[in-house]
Amino acid sequence: MRIDYWKKIARLVGREAERQNLPPEQFLDGLRGRPKYIVAAEKIAAERGITSDEVLYEQSERIRKSHYPTELCLDPDEVEEYVAQSGALTREKAEHLASCPFCSEMVDATRPSEEKLQDELQWLTAAAAAKQQRESDEDLAIPEDAHI
Ligand SMILES: [Zn+2]
Fold it and tell me: Ion ligand 1 — residues with CB under 5 Å?
């Protein structure tokens, strides 16, 4: 049952890639390469019942009005080292991290998590399901007994 499900997704991905005249790996890269900030904005927008443009506008306003980056803000290298635990923060920076919403957001966004992986998997599954829906609308549904 579970294997059939993944076979169907693989088949759908194969078909869509063929339709777009792309190798399947490249088609998948295209899906995964969708800018994460857009995906995140759409998710927030859906939760709040506003458009993703409004979310992006709010976020850009928030950044414009903030004092980020301050002298103590972590640069991307420091964030990566801190998350990978290969570099220790100075006491001053550690105290700053605890009080700066921008720096703590950067650290959270960089930290790998089971939840993020699940989100990505869910998104891929939803994309495949949407394609399947479109195909069945076009009366091209994969028969239950299809052999791949
Ligand atoms: Zn900061």
Answer: 73, 100, 102-103
Q: What is the pLDDT of residues 26-66, one digit of tens each?
A: 777 777 666 777 777 888 899 999 998 998 888 888 777 77
For residue 105, report the distance from its CA to the centre of ligand 1, in Å. Answer: 9
> How does pLDDT run across 120-144, given as a tens digit for each residue?
677 777 777 777 777 776 655 555 6
> Quick check: is 4 in a domain?
no
Q: How far is the CA of 41 from the centre of ligand 1 (A)?
A: 22
In a domain, 127, yes or no: no
- Ligand 1 centroid distance, CA of 97 (Å): 6
The answer to whether the predicted template modeling score (pTM) of the entire model surpasses 0.85 is no
Tell me, yes or no, whether 47 lies in a domain. yes
Q: What is the 3-state secondary structure (H, E, C) of the chain?
A: CHHHHHHHHHHHHHHHHHHCCCCHHHHHHHHHCCCHHHHHHHHHHHHHCCCHHHHHHHHHHHHHHCCCCCCCCCCHHHHHHHHCCCCCCCHHHHHHHHHCHHHHHHHHHHCCCHHHHHHHHHHHHHHHHHHHHHHHHCCCCCCCCCCC
Domains identified in the chain, total number: 2
Q: How far away, in angstroms, is 85 Cα from ligand 1 center?
A: 19
